[in-house]
Amino acid sequence: MSSFGTMQSFVNQHPDVHMYIAIDVSGSMAGRKIYEVCQRLYNLLSNCPPDTIFSIVLFNSRAWSVVKSKRARNIDIAGLLSHIEGRCSGRTALYDTWGDLVSSIPIPGLYLKLGYYCLYYY
Fold first, then answer.
1. How many structural domains are present in the chain?
2. Residue 116 pLDDT more than 60?
3. Confidence bin at 15 (pLDDT 50/70/90)
4. What is the DSSP string of 88-99?
5. Residue 10 carries which DSSP code?
6. Residue 13's CATH number
7. pLDDT tens digits for range 102-112
8. Can you tell me the distance from the alpha carbon of 103 to that of 75, in angstroms, rounded to the nearest whole number?
């Protein structure tokens, strides 16, 4: 099973999960790679339980949050994907990305208890 299939199964079995996703939008991701990431993200957001909570950080030379603790049903998927596809440039700042993700966790240390990470990196 692909990592996406495994993640989709996990989310479907645990609808109360908070998914933290980091997406590389550096210059090396332009074209087909970012298109494939967006397809997978679309499938995940469209098929997960509507109350699943997502936090999504994009990163290239810097990192920034595009979704902060939102339920899947409240995410403008088309707008999000359009924003992601138009951002591929710069270099990769992975360290800042993890800092943004960890700081968005509402309960300090929760990421250690859950022990579940999601990172798409090609």
1. 1
2. no
3. low
4. --S---HHHHHH
5. H
6. 3.40.50.410
7. 666 665 444 33
8. 20
Residue 100 belongs to domain spanning:
3-120
Residues belonging to the chain: 122
Q: How far is Cα 105 from Cα 90, in angstroms, rounded to an integer?
A: 26
Q: What tokens does 28 get?
A: 């090396």
Q: What b-and-e string marks burial along 1-20, b requiring 16 or more CB atoms within 10 Å of the CB?
A: eeebeebbeebeeeeebbbb
Q: Tell me the two tokens of residue 113.
A: 């208890």
CA distance 118 to 98: 11
Residue 34 tokens read as: 């970012």
Q: In 30-93, where does DSSP find H-type helix?
A: 32-47, 77-85
Whole-angstrom Cα distance, residue 12 to residue 43?
A: 12
* Alpha-carbon span 67 to 41, nearest angstrom: 13
Q: Which two tokens stand for residue 64?
A: 């920034």
Strands 18-24 and 118-120 turn out to be: parallel
CA–CA gap between residue 61 and residue 8 (Å, rounded): 29
Question: pTM, whole model, 2 decimals?
Answer: 0.68
Bridge partner list, 58: 23, 64
